[in-house]
Amino acid sequence: MEDIKIEKLDHQGRGIARMKDKPMFIPNALPDEVVKVNIIEEKKKYRIGEVEEILLSSDKRVKPICPYFEVCGGCDLMHLRYEDQIQYKQEKIIEIMKKFAHLEAEIVKPIIFSENSLYYRNKVTFQVDNCVGFYGKKSYNLTPIAHCYIATPKINAVLKEIQKLPLEQIEKVIVKTDERIKEVMVILEVKGILEEQKIISVLKDVATSIILKNGHKEKTIYGVDFICFPIGEYQFEVSPSSFFQVNLEQCEKLYQKVVDSAGITKEDVVLDLYCGTGTIGIYISKFAKQVYGVEINPDAVKNANKNKERNHIENIEFQCGDCGKVVKGLKLKPDIIIVDPPRKGLDKDTVEKLLMWNTRTIVYVSCDPITLARDLKLLQEKYDVKMITPVDMFPNTYHVECVSVLSRKAQ
User: Fold this and answer.
1) Which end of the chain is more exposed for a tag (fewer CB within 10 A), N or C?
2) Phi, psi of 254 (to 5 degrees)
3) How far apart (Å, rounded) are the C-alpha atoms in residues 121 and 128?
4) Any alpha helices (H) in 286-403, and if so which ranges?
5) What residues form DSSP beta bridges with 364?
6) What pLDDT is recorded for position 3?
7) The predicted structure's pLDDT at residue 301
8) Cα distance between residue 262 and residue 338, in whole Å
9) How far apart, in whole angstroms, are the C-alpha atoms of residue 202 and residue 315?
């Protein structure tokens, strides 16, 4: 056991200290703290430590409201004051962009913080193994939980009822809802045959839709097979397998930042890549002449087309396919391109096509700063990065969303 002083936080919210010849990464430790540490993992170039005792505590430390914080893998920063979480994320983006994309600090604008740091998640996946909970930090050890402090109250109400189900045949339970809507979707991933009426009788008072998923087969046993979320003046239909932002309040701020940053006019053709259920494309459609969306998930594209009809949007079209392959054959000449890729970032074919197009503006929405920095470095061959605005979509975790704006370099 060693006494060490924490220097800073790494990009995953862990404390960093140097112990002899190697750096050590220590969860639940804050800068300037002195802690007793046990080495729990020895690697060639670094060590992983575990706090045994805090000898000198940071004035930025707070007691986590969640009793599962130290064992659950859901939150990383609940021991840090929210205003300091914001500062950490701001500095983290600046550091990543400087190191990997060679961008100056002033490119990164002030982070858009969340009014609510608790009870904001509208989707949660509960793991099940004869109990209901979340996996531990960096492990598949299941921590049983009775209440999640970042999930909506409606999700916590469902959690209480899930405990009454025949858990031995259930592997996961996914719950989607938000406090501003009446609908609650519960998806049970099962490995056997369950008595449907028993499930309905347990969940019908807290759920408006119940779906059983066995492998790739889905069956709606109660209610309808979608849920609707509001963003601004629009309503968006989301199927069980479609992605949707987990923080509606921050999502609306993010989409408004896209609108404010893109400079869209009624003469502009906008290409929306990785468009999901069509949310960004529909949200910006009233500012543009025409919007084209591309998405690989066929269920999401079905949702997108229904959302187009639901919101009476006439100037938008959606195509199902892999973005990298679709863009290679597009004859379209977009004025503005919006990309919102998964965590792995842009694929090679999409980057090549973006560099070929004479597009005025690219707006890049990213949930992973490392892959964002990688892609921005590549795109700087033809584009100037004008600004990057972090958005705190995930309070109490190290994750942060970014909206980046790029303009075509002068010829």
Assistant:
1) C
2) -65, -45
3) 19
4) 298-310, 323-329, 348-356, 369-379
5) 339, 404
6) 87
7) 96
8) 9
9) 44
DSSP SS3 for 40 = strand
**Phi–psi pair at 52, nearest 5 degrees:** -95, -40
What is the pLDDT, as a whole number, of residue 140? 84
d(Cα 185, Cα 183) in Å, to the nearest integer? 7
Report residues of the chain scoring pLDDT below 70. Answer: 1
The pTM of this model reads 0.94
- At residue 45's C-alpha, the angle toward residues 44 and 51, to 5°, is 100
Q: What is the pLDDT of residue 141?
A: 87
Within 293-368, where are the H helices?
298-310, 323-329, 348-356
Structural domain boundaries in the chain: 2-61, 86-115+247-408, 123-228
Q: Angle, nearest 10°, between helix axes 369-379 and 82-101?
A: 30
Tell me the pLDDT tens digit for each residue of 297-311: 999 999 999 999 999
- The whole-number pLDDT of residue 310 equals 97
Q: Which CATH class for the 86-115+247-408 domain? A: alpha beta
Top-level class of domain 2-61? mainly beta
Instruction: Kindly provide the residue ranges of all beta strands, DSSP E only, lying in 227-315, ordered along the sequence.
Output: 227-231, 234-238, 269-273, 290-295
Indicate if 86-115+247-408 has the same CATH topology as 2-61.
Answer: no
Tell the burial category of 53 from Cβ atoms under 10 Å away from its Cβ (0-12, 13-18, 19+): exposed
Phi, psi at 305, each rounded to 5°: -70, -35
**Which residue among the candidates 72, 275, 323, 367 is catalytic per the annotation?**
367
| pLDDT score at 81 | 97
Please confirm, yes or no, whether 367 is among the known catalytic residues. Answer: yes
pLDDT at 73: 83
Q: Residue 164 is inside which H or E element, if any?
A: none
How far is the C-alpha of 264 from the C-alpha of 376, rounded, in Å?
A: 21
3-class DSSP assignment, residue 257: helix
- Cβ atoms of 356 and 330 within 8 Å: the answer is no
- Please identify, in words, the CATH class of the domain defined by 123-228: mainly beta
Map tokens 């004035």 to a residue: 59
φ, ψ (nearest 5 deg) of residue 75: -120, 145
Q: How far apart are CA 226 and CA 154, in angstroms?
A: 17
**Residues 6 or more apart from 86 whose CB is under 8 A from it?**
111, 113, 392
Q: Which is nearest to 279 in space by CA: 228, 226, 347?
A: 228
Rounded to whole angstroms, the Cα distance separating 248 from 62 reads 26
In DSSP notation, 129-153 reads: SSSEEEEBTTS--EEE-S--TTB-H
d(CA 244, CA 229): 9
pLDDT of residue 185: 97
